[in-house]
């Protein structure tokens, strides 16, 4: 006989995978498309040379891009390998899962068809993405990809190939990306399910008694739950009677940017030192920004 807690863990684990896998598939197919059909020359025309303009334009593009944090890392890695500056890629990665129209509309519905929460969520996300991108542009040189991710494939958009050969190459790249990030998705889903099963919500509520502590608790909860950004607003709305608006915004902004799943995926793409700074900057700006709301 399996214990009740193990059955609950199993149910949560499977539900996280079912929720995340479609977005991972979308992400890896987009990454494959970028590899085979988008050239460095195309990207050079889109991304400005100026650092500030590059970060701002990438953040705006991310805001129009309906991506989930489950699949954004393979896309960003492929863009950086194609020559997109690191700071622009990070700005895109931080806004894509949060500010896109699907996420903002689901937030609008979850909070009683009111626009204040989507406004706070979108505004703080954009500010955090731009600030982090600008700091990254000053602090880090190079693409910060690990050696495995930095090796370019001989088959890409720069070659003289027929459409069918490029399409087949896109499928191969998508499959490689899926199996590369899939193992981290499974590990992340299991850890998140275990945390949800064995860490009591009442414990978190006891910790988050003060205003600052409540923001930190909700950020930690967002990290642990590892919800897809299209659905997290409905969970956040259930805490309206317990936590302040600012702490709920912290939950809605920090979770899509940093959770268990995408941190493990980032570890497969970027250097550990870079990820440590990236997560720290995001946490600091989200915390300070949410306190001001």
TrEMBL record:
It is found in: Cell membrane. InterPro entries: DUF318, UPF0718. Keywords: Cell membrane, Membrane, Transmembrane, Transmembrane helix. The chain crosses the membrane at residues 12-34, 54-76, 88-111, 117-136, 216-236, 274-292. It comes from Bacillus badius. Belongs to the UPF0718 family. This is Permease. It is a multi-pass membrane protein. It comes from the Bacteria. PANTHER family: UPF0718 PROTEIN YCGR (PTHR34184:SF4). Its main location: membrane.
């Amino acid at each position: 006989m399996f214990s009740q807690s193990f059955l609950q863990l199993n149910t949560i684990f499977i539900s996280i995978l079912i929720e995340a896998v479609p977005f991972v598939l979308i992400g890896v197919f987009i990454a494959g498309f970028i590899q085979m059909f988008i050239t460095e020359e195309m990207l050079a025309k889109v991304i400005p040379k100026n650092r500030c303009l590059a970060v701002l334009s990438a953040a705006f593009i991310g805001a129009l891009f309906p991506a989930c944090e489950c699949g954004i890392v393979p896309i960003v890695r492929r863009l950086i390998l194609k020559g997109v500056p690191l700071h622009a890629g990070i700005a895109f990665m931080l806004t894509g899962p949060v500010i896109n129209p699907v996420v903002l509309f689901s937030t609008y519905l979850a909070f009683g068809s009111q626009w204040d929460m989507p406004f706070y969520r979108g505004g703080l996300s954009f500010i955090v993405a731009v600030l982090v991108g600008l700091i990254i542009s000053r602090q880090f040189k190079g693409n910060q990809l690990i050696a495995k991710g930095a090796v370019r494939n001989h088959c890409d958009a720069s070659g003289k190939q027929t459409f069918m050969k490029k399409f087949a190459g896109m499928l191969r790249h998508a499959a490689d990306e899926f199996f590369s990030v899939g193992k981290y998705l499974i590990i992340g889903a299991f850890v998140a399910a275990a945390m949800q099963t064995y860490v009591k919500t009442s414990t978190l509520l006891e910790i988050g008694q003060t205003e600052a502590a409540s923001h930190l608790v909700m950020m930690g909860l967002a990290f642990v739950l590892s919800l897809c950004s299209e659905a997290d607003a409905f969970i956040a709305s259930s805490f309206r009677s317990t936590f302040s608006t600012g702490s709920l915004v912290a939950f809605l902004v920090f979770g899509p940017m940093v959770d268990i799943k995408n941190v493990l995926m980032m570890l497969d793409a970027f250097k550990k030192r870079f990820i440590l700074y990236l997560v720290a900057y995001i946490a600091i700006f989200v915390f300070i920004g949410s306190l001001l709301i």
